[in-house]
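Here is one chain, start to finish.
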Amino acid sequence: MGKKSAIFFVVFTASFLQLLPGKSFQPLEVPGQTFRLIPESERSLHRLVVGLEANSTKAYMVPGAWASTPENKERIRRLRRELYMIQFELVHGNLLKVLPGHTRLFVAVPDPEFVVESRANEAELFTTYLKTHAGWSEDQIKKRVSFFEVPEVLLFPQDMAEILGRDDKGRLVLGVGEDGPAVYKQAAMKLAQDFPQDFQVHEIPKLNTEGGDMEIVWRPDGTIGLMVGQNRLRRYLQNKKNLVLQGRKIPPEWISEALKGFGDGFFGLPIQVLGRKELEDPRYISTEVFHIDMVVNILRGKNGVTGFVPSYEKDPVDAYTELPLGADIVRRAQRFYDEVAQDLKQSGYNIVRLPFRDHPIRNPVNVGKFTDPVTGKPTIFLAKFPYHYSTEKNKPSVQSGLQQIIYGMEDALELWRKEPSDVNWSGLEKAMEAVWKELGKVESSANPIFDAQALIYRENGINVIPVISYPSSEGGIHCLLLK
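Its structure:
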């Protein structure tokens, strides 16, 4: 796709541009622009943006009152380093351990001038993590890792822009909406400013381009379109009409107006809204499913352009709280999944359902996706969580066992915090080692739900790279990456 193609256009009455018949599954040239639109699933993952949290002592109640001796100062420094790396692993899983060798990392670090919680050493700690826990060499880090400072913590880079494609210089083009939070717009501008050879910003008037709730995708006929979640359309209308529209029915003519607004902002692409029924009747809204990357994953599989959609199996349990998932949460989410599956099927997509039994935030469609530049095969990073159901009577689940080890580390930390003795420090060191050891066990542990999901993807021609992940209240793999 790097080779420029001669592409002809035809104008439809709805004012959107697409390729002529026979030119399907090709990048879309944009008249008057120097870039081509490329679906997310077709990009090669040569560039990946991730964000780092601030190295805040408050997150772990790290002691400070006993830092008067050189020995305690060194121990506190080591403690902060180790806890920061554990925190990164718990949020991002082992993604950086399984990242393809051709991928370059662009890492957003908090600017200590604006982020008061920062200790100005996040880049150093991240480099240590890469060497000690992800298997990166000094040479790999030097060649493949770059840092840029942002005025606020950027934990979910996916939401800062919608990547449109590549320009004629091979740069990724960041579509940044006028109606975006300052933190996202500033981060995108800083990324392009610091790395002008890799990124370009294209500003989109009037729109909010929160990347988790919109995606440039293949349509069933091989042309390119834009999928948008109902929350983006509702926000667009709220701003345009200066009204509070949360919980209100949206008239059909307003929906058409919003669709036209997104079509105009995205170069006349045809727009498919996911959640139209929720716009027309807010009683159907699932507050737990707020972005379309929690509902569908569009990929070009062996049976055509396929929408992979979750579907609940019986007795789902929230792995984070280890409590049965509320019946209303399940009912609303499942209704939304079924609605999206039906709408996409009617639009011509091949639909494949994926089983899961957890909170909607840990669904099997919030994945990292790219096309392998060597094999040309569609590939995904799929989260493999510790299995949160017990497989043996009176024996805790893998997830419960891991949680107990983490609780043990927290208890050891609190004990040393109250009495920073040599004995308690030794106990804390052993507790942190136990956490790393337990995290390492997840890779070889059984998870029948993950196995079923991975098998379905593979049967449909998708290469699956497992990413050992851990339940949290944070977003999934797709939310953590901009690529």
